[in-house]
């Protein structure tokens, strides 16, 4: 059986997850979708969409989609859905997992790699995070879970943008980009999103292009960062949040508010090739120490001894790599890596990566 693609939908309470989900389920795209909800609560799909009582575990929706609440854990819900599909009791082509507003998507994503039954049946396609423009900055200030959801995202949808000024929206977008430069952002109204921007994004596909906002890279080079090391092992980072471009960031707003988010990102680039052995040792070591704080990391690498790109990515302690296409004729063989995590010591990572080069 072909692997079933899975999309994880996350976002803080009231951000508009259910609105987007309803939109996806009711759009006439002809796809049969199984939805797994972390819970049936007030946030769940409106009852008028449901054909039968919500007290059973699987609900057939009137458009042929399936809705399943997690009474135990995600793994067993996925295995049960797959069994019913095999036996012809249920028909669906893909799965959407809607997490609770308070959830850290990390353990949900890990389920697709750590459990053999799940990994043999399903393929994690992407994590979509919805951020509410009206309350987004405040939620990010107050809740580390909201920051984690942004850090994990492959695609960020910004809802309720009509309730804020252009300047407030630009400030939020700037902040999100600093937290996660590899996720594309899109402003959406009432969950109206083309289906092509929700499914088959290949965010977890090793060979999918490494998307890093090019403006982010130029900003990083202009940023001044000061690192203070306490003797208690904690690292404090002070960010100078200006863009480095004359007159601001090009969005017409010269000043951005300072947000000292726990979730931050940084990019490593080098034209020198990596030594495979040194890099493996270094990444193995940092994953041991910082794994729980490393949300998403991904890279396209130039490694000594191969004329092909090496693509790698990871979530927390789990890493995978794969040989990608050959470097094209005349293409600069530049390694690029992005790390997104909670209070990661950038200087230790940069120094270790530098020392892993030939």
UniProtKB/TrEMBL annotation:
Residues 263-357 form the CobW C-terminal domain. Residues 219-244 are annotated as: Disordered. The keyword Chaperone applies. Pfam families: cobW, CobW_C. One of its GO terms (molecular function) is hydrolase activity. Transmembrane segments: none annotated. It catalyses: GTP + H2O = GDP + phosphate + H(+). One of its GO terms (cellular component) is cytoplasm. SUPFAM superfamilies: Hypothetical protein YjiA, C-terminal domain, P-loop containing nucleoside triphosphate hydrolases. Keywords: Chaperone, Hydrolase, Nucleotide-binding. The keyword Hydrolase applies. SMART domains: CobW_C (SM00833). Zinc chaperone that directly transfers zinc cofactor to target proteins, thereby activating them. Zinc is transferred from the CXCC motif in the GTPase domain to the zinc binding site in target proteins in a process requiring GTP hydrolysis. Belongs to the SIMIBI class G3E GTPase family. ZNG1 subfamily. This is Putative GTP-binding protein YjiA. The lineage of its organism: Bacteria, Pseudomonadati, Pseudomonadota, Betaproteobacteria, Burkholderiales.
């Amino acid at each position: 059986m072909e692997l079933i693609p899975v999309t994880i939908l996350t976002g803080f309470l009231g951000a508009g997850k259910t609105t987007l989900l309803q939109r996806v389920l009711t759009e006439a795209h002809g796809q049969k979708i199984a939805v797994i909800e972390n819970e049936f609560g007030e946030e769940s799909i409106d009852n008028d969409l449901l054909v039968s009582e919500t007290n059973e575990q699987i609900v057939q929706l009137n458009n042929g989609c399936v809705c399943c609440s997690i009474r135990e854990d995600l793994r067993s819900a996925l295995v049960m859905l797959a069994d019913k599909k095999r036996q012809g009791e249920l028909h669906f082509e893909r799965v959407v997992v809607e997490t609770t507003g308070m959830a850290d998507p990390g353990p949900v994503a890990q389920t697709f790699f750590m459990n053999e039954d799940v990994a043999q049946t399903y393929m994690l396609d992407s994590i979509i995070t919805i951020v509410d423009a009206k309350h987004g900055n405040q939620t990010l200030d107050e809740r580390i879970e909201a920051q984690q959801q942004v850090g994990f995202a492959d695609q960020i949808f910004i809802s309720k943008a009509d309730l804020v000024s252009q300047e407030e929206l630009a400030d939020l977008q700037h902040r999100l980009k600093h937290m996660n430069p590899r996720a594309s952002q899109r402003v959406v109204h009432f969950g109206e999103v083309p289906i092509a921007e929700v499914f088959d994004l290949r965010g977890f596909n090793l060979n999918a292009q490494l998307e890093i906002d090019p403006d982010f890279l130029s900003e990083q080079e202009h940023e001044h960062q000061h690192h203070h090391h306490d003797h208690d092992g904690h690292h404090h980072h002070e960010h100078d949040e200006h863009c480095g471009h004359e007159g601001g960031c090009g969005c017409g707003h010269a000043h951005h508010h300072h947000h000292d988010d726990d979730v931050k990102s940084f990019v490593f680039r080098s034209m020198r090739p990596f030594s495979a052995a040194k890099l493996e040792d270094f990444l193995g070591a940092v994953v041991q120490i910082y794994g729980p704080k490393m949300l998403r990391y991904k890279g396209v690498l130039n490694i000594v001894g191969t004329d092909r790109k090496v693509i790698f990515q990871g979530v927390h302690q789990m890493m995978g790599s794969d040989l990608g296409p050959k470097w094209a004729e005349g293409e600069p063989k530049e390694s690029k890596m992005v790390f997104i995590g909670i209070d990661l010591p950038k200087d230790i990572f940069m120094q270790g990566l530098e020392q892993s080069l030939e």
